[in-house]
Amino acid sequence: VWQLSVGEQQRVEIIKILYRGASLLILDEPTAVLTPQEVEELFRVLRSMLNKGYTIIFISHKLREVLSLSDRITILRDGHVVKTISAAEATQEKLARLMVGREVLFQVEHPSAELGRAGLTLEGIWAQGDEDRPALRGIDLEVYSGEILGIAGVSGNGQRELAEVIAGLRKSTNSSAVFKAFSASIFETGIKGS
């Protein structure tokens, strides 16, 4: 089973539960580590189960998914039910407001960063994962001073290993890899000392 994708492992678990005769399925953040395609497949399976009379509780902070899958939505805050509403009358904005108790901005402006010199350069980084399988395969990237570089990916796809290689906690398995970083003093970063 460990050789299956996370989405396939999840479907195996659902089949095992159904085989045992369960009529209620509780899913807590089931899409957290799934690819968009695996999410679509999971939702297809869940809708099929719904049509066969199964009861499903879908717990998630991903509002689009909750809206697309649910018939009714119950919002919890501080361990209390704030409200239960029909998915037809719900919007992302309304759900977010109920979840946090105030208006939530969905559009955030990101001004262009003024980039300085390369603060980190990685070329040809390879690293093994915990199960002795390649976790990083020829990673090349540069991060410049004055920049925040976001790393996106489904959990288990090398993000942790990349952070560990950069921090020096995991070795690159490629002897010809290039790893260059400059160190900024506390004065260059603008961080005030205590």
UniProtKB/TrEMBL annotation:
Please name the InterPro entries in this protein's record: ABC_carbohydrate_import_ATPase, ABC_transporter-like_ATP-bd, P-loop_NTPase
One Pfam family matching this protein: ABC_tran
Keyword annotations for this protein, in alphabetical order, are: ATP-binding, Nucleotide-binding
Which SUPFAM superfamilies did the record assign?
A: P-loop containing nucleoside triphosphate hydrolases
- Tell me which residues make up the ABC transporter domain: 3-32
Q: Which GO terms describe its molecular function?
A: ATP binding; ATP hydrolysis activity
Q: What is this protein called?
A: ABC transporter domain-containing protein
